[in-house]
Structure formats: C-alpha cells, structure tokens
Design goal:
With 119 residues, this protein is mainly alpha-helical. The protein contains 7 helices and no strands.
Amino acid sequence: MKSIERADDFTTRRKHLQLLTDEELHQRFWQLAEQIIAPLIEEARTHTTPSIERSVLLRMGFSSIEAKKLIAEMQQRELLGYGAGRLVFELANSKNISVRDAGCKLLEGCYWEELAHGK
C-alpha cells in the first residue's frame, strides 16, 4: 500500500497562534486541554460500576470481601450511583468515626437507613 504524502501546511495552520505570547499560548493550551477532558469528567461523574466502586473501597482500606459485601448492599438499596466511597466517607464524618469504623458498622447492618436518607 502506497502512502500519500501530505502537503506541509504548518505555517498556514499556525497563523492564528503566531502573535500570542508564551503566557497566552500556555493559557490556550490549558483551555483546549480542559475542553478535551470535560466530557470524560462528566462521564465519570454520572457513570460507575460495581468494579470501580469496589476499587475505591479497597483503596480506602477495606478488604476485598468487605468491599464486595458493601457494594452488594449498596446495589440492593440502589445507592451505588452516589459513590460507595463517598457514602462511607460522609457517614464517617457525620458520626465522627473513622472511615473503617463506618464501613464496618454498615457491614454489621447499622446506619443503612441514615445512609439512604442522606443521599
């Protein structure tokens, strides 16, 4: 397969950037980077999976067995969309206990009603 050579149009394409200062180029770069990333950030805010939420709980110090049980309970109660880690963290703050203690209390069956009302 023969490749087609593209005409060099760099000087034409960069004319609108030519008069910008380094600071303006820097700002333009970050503006464009934010535009590219915005849809990804929105997707992450509105979509999650049990796997992602388990991963969050694992990083918060829960064992895989504990994380799996917490996720199963949150799914059953239709709370997973609020973020498992966020829910456990907010519960810990509201009860003035550690994140670990909050998760363990949930595993014991405590605080689920409060968690559901606080979403």
